[in-house]
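Backbone shape codes:
===
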Amino acid sequence: MKNILILSKNFKDYISGLYYQDLINAFNAKHNVFLYGPGYGNYSLDDNFESVLDKSLDYLESVDLIVVSNSWGNENPENAIFDEHPNICLSRITIPSVYFLNKEYKKIDQKLAYIKINKFDVIFTVHKNHEGWSEKTGLLFKTMPFGVDLTRFKPLNLPKIYDFSFMGALHRSYGVTSRYAMKKILFKPNKINSIFNKSRWFRLNFIRKKYQDYNIFWAEWSAKNIFNKPLTLHGQEYIVFLNKTKVCLNSLSAHGIFNTRFFELMATKTLIFCPKSVESYGILVDGVNAVMFNDDFSDLEKKFQLLMSGQINYEKIIDRAFEDVQNYTYENIVDNVILH
């Protein structure tokens, strides 16, 4: 068991980005941890690293490792500053330090500058293409996929009432094209700009007639129902929704990131429908633990029709995905960090 100082914002009550707190929880479960950062009672902008270390030693016998978490820093692109606490500099310390790079598609130059100044021993990133960042900083980067909390995301044995679903952002401005390609197949041409597949007021179906026999749920960010309640869900409502969905569309996120939803779908036994480019991470394989379509979308509609008509062995694929996801818990991430 290690004594670990973690620099992190307090995301204990944050529900739309569970992975921030899940990482903290996993460290807490396996090691002696001192948490420091905005939202914690011990935090002060006047502190430098020496004062933070002194505070940690009130709780820990020593500090074996410093972890800068995925919530540290300012992600707002409107603000040119990323490092909001430059007094805390790790470049001259002898204690090993690691950094979890997050949202690689935002303020990457500021983040790389922060990494270079602090001279971390290892920088973990969910991105698989990090050679350029390593060359730019002269430091070691390693791919570390997101994890999943299997005590939260799990099969609930609920009826699969939705044949197909998508929930989230299209991310077209970030170069993601597969989500919109699927939308063009499903939606009537004059309803393609709708962010939900039914009218809020009259419940009119915006899905093409040939797919209206299937129960399809499509909700992009800002979509609301007739009672003005958001249709993009969080917390337990989101977990229940996944459990009620048979097939869910997902893809790599902005800048080709293998996102948390892949693991959440695997853990709730919801079949993943995604582009073949996802195979590049070595986690999902077409026909084994997911169903994939060509990246040029040449077989997208055909694969969708095969899924909806039951011509693909759905149960075998979700069972294998559920088996595979057991290797991607946040506890496993913590173990890998310690090994590095």
